[in-house]
Amino acid sequence: MAGGFVDPRESAEETCKRELFEELQLDVDISNLKYLTSLPNVYQYKEIDYNTIDLFYEYNVTEKFEVNLDVSEISEAAWIPLKELNLEDLAFDSQKKFFKEYLKTV
After folding, report:
1. What element of type H or E holds 36?
2. N or C: at which end does the chain have fewer Cβ atoms within 10 angstroms?
3. Contact 71/85 with Cβ under 8 angstroms?
4. Residue 87: is its pLDDT beyond 70?
């Protein structure tokens, strides 16, 4: 899972492409992004709660790839089979809610 904020004059899909490249060095074809849903979230920054909307997209890769970490963007990456995903390990309630429903469909 990669995430980030939309920059001015940037579409949600362009944000997805940029964030996936920044965090995973994955260059995606925007036309293959599949929008799944959006959920409200609260993001705390410097002790202030910001109400945000999280957009969830799916992007399939043909095979596992080695992630070249940029530690300023991401500190760790791991491939986890969906059936082994522990929802309590996820950072945000919106992610937990999303995967609780998403896992019922796969």
Report:
1. strand 34-45
2. C
3. no
4. yes
* CB-based contact 26:77 (threshold 8 Å): no
What amino acid occupies position 10?
E
As a dihedral over the C-alpha atoms of residue 94, residue 88, residue 62, residue 5, rounded to 10 degrees, the angle is 40
pLDDT top residue among 40 and 68: 40
In angstroms, the CA 70 to CA 4 distance is 14
Residue type, 28: V
Alpha-carbon distances, residue 16 vs 12, 87, 89 (angstroms): 6, 22, 22
pTM of the predicted structure, to 2 decimals:
0.83
Could you give the 3-state DSSP secondary structure of residue 90? coil
